[in-house]
Amino acid sequence: MAVSVTPPAGARAFLDSHGWNGAEIEPVTGDASFRRYFRVKIDGRSAILMDAPPPEDPAPFIGLARWLHDRGFAAPAIHAEDRAQGLVLIEDFGDDRMRDAVDADPSRAPSLYRTAVDTLVALHREPPPPVDAYDRALLLDRAALLPEWYCPAVGIEPDLPAFLAAWETVLDLAVADRPVLTLRDYHAENLMLLADGRIGLLDFQDALTGHPAYDLVSLLQDARRDVEPAIEAAMIDHYVRETGVGDDFRTAYHVLGAQRNTRIIGVFTRLWRRDGKNRYPSLCPRVWGYLERDLDHPALAPVKAWFDATIPPARRGDPMVLAA
Hints:
Helix content: 40-55%
Structural class: alpha+beta
Low-confidence stretches: none
Strand order of the largest sheet: 1-2-3-5-4
Strand content: 5-15%
Order of helices and strands: HEEEHEEHHHHHEEEEHHHHHH
Number of strands: 9
Number of helices: 13
Oligomer: single chain
Radius of gyration: 20 Å
Distance between the termini: 19 Å
Shape: globular
């Protein structure tokens, strides 16, 4: 399903009322949601117009952007908002994405990933805002997207009770004693490189409180690009040194990695089957690779046993290809 590049009907009046009369409006590549983004430009100024009409709700993004900005993190400043229409005008961080920079020059990867990890270290020192928790029940519910969407797509009838029972035995390892703000889409495609050396944060409207390992997994087991295992290991070591977390952090990292990658395979299949977004299934083979590495951790033996009994290696991959 193609996303319209035509600005929403109320965009021009909204911009005019906030000092952007006659601005050019150009579409910007969006994300997996139904939000749309446009760059507006006039007289050497630029900003990003977010179009998030109902049922999308821009309020969480606005609130979290201000919370982050007030604590010194590089979240976009909010220039104007019309929540009824779902229109928000935000600071333009430009086009220098971390993902593009690393792909163009892999020698920059160690330093850029270190900066991204340092941003997480600083974020995790802050008491989190009052948002919902990514708790045990929600972790289990989100993992179940794989048997709900992926398995039927590739011709497998899963044993859902056995799946849930296997996860029930390991999820306590992924619940933090001291929850932190978890941005949940913290990866190189959502991180902008700013002129002052900071990492610009995007796509955090679905943030919850959760385990500090979650966003580290999101960064280092990136569904959209390969992260070298040596960089992944070095960045985990760096986080551990900087925070002083115990040995159980590494176990939680792999449990959350397995949960997150299980969820992503289900989400990417749903984006194809339900929403007509056909580019996402091709990302699943990479995610399967991460998932299989996580499942090799001894703590995940019950979950690995379910996967081995249910989804043979030949049925692990791009669901659109396997369904053909």
